[in-house]
Known about the structure:
Blueprint: H1 25-28, H2 35-47, H3 53-74, H4 83-94, E1 101-102, E2 109-112, E3 115-118, E4 125-126, H5 131-135, H6 149-168, H7 201-217, H8 219-234, E5 255-257, E6 263-268, E7 274-278, H9 281-293, H10 321-341, H11 345-349, H12 357-367, H13 373-380, H14 385-389, H15 394-403
Helix pairs in contact: 2-3, 3-6, 7-8, 7-10, 8-9, 8-10, 8-12
Amino acid sequence: xxxxxxxxxxxxxxxxxxxxxxxxxxxxxxxxxxxxxxxxxxxxxxxxxxxxxxxxxxxxxxxxxxxxxxxxxxxxxxxxxxxxxxxxxxxxxxxxxxxxxxxxxxxxxxxxxxxxxxxxxxxxxxxxxxxxxxxxxxxxxxxxxxxxxxxxxxxxxxxxxxxxxxxxxxxxxxxxxxxxxxxxxxxxxxxxxxxxxxxxxxxxxxxxxxxxxxxxxxxxxxxxxxxxxxxxxxxxxxxxxxxxxxxxxxxxxxxxxxxxxxxxxxxxxxxxxxxxxxxxxxxxxxxxxxxxxxxxxxxxxxxxxxxxxxxxxxxxxxxxxxxxxxxxxxxxxxxxxxxxxxxxxxxxxxxxxxxxxxxxxxxxxxxxxxxxxxxxxxxxxxxxxxxxxxxxxxxxxxxxxxxxxxxxxxxx
Length: 412
């Protein structure tokens, strides 16, 4: 069967409607009578995750690939797939044809004269490069596309969940993903103590000092920068917990004082779960300073609806995680220049690869040295203490210390 450049099947959450079929579907699947039912099952499954746009997008990516491959490569309905077929799908994802790979993320659909149309440059797979290579002007190469272990795990998890849904809907009576007994031939077993990506104490001190400098230079512009950096580190926030979304809009009133005079921050994290984060004295001081720079009273009143992080014009909440990411990256870049100027080139270079999420990791890693792990676990929103334990590196330090002075030639 000839390989074609795929056409996207699912629009963004804002435009998708499970009650309507995809107009373009009839054009793509004239010879595939099973496609309408497959699509209907898939779109209802995806729509059930509309409570979290990030989850919806992640699931859409995997289901999209599965349908595209099943229909246009294998020529089968998803209800006909068996264990061997799904293994072939995994192998396909590991080495997709060039026509299925793009070099940048492109929106699936765009609006033209009031009509939603598929983007011709969209591809199911995207070749990526690391942040440092991008900053050096290196372009992604389709020939070097590689599927990560994390991406493989996502395929198994999402597709397995999808087939369980199809069983519940009586669309199929078995799960081909669950029938794969030896996933280890695709997914490597993870080592128990993997290294957490985070900033060193020196790097963090430069970063937060840089945020202070930026604030002193342009307080109206960088009051957000300073508060965002402190909130990501001091309360272990994920970037999605600072940006407004249809399911949650962080507000000043989500800082709350209890009957004992202790302050907490209410947020909604992964899995649409609420959690209370204990607010330290330093974090409370950072909040006061931030609010005063905005012309507000030093502490929020109960139920105050002022957006926690506003757009530059101050009128509405930031909804784009990309914008917050840019604010953090600008601070990282400025800190890099200061460290390099001070002769700390080796330490500075890691800031070129650091991401926003490193700040959460850095805050957790620092706190598990001093706080009970159960307290850190609950503030971080970890589902178990085992996840928090990954940040405790006492054993790793001891193991490395015992190996540090090993001789390659014992007689030397």
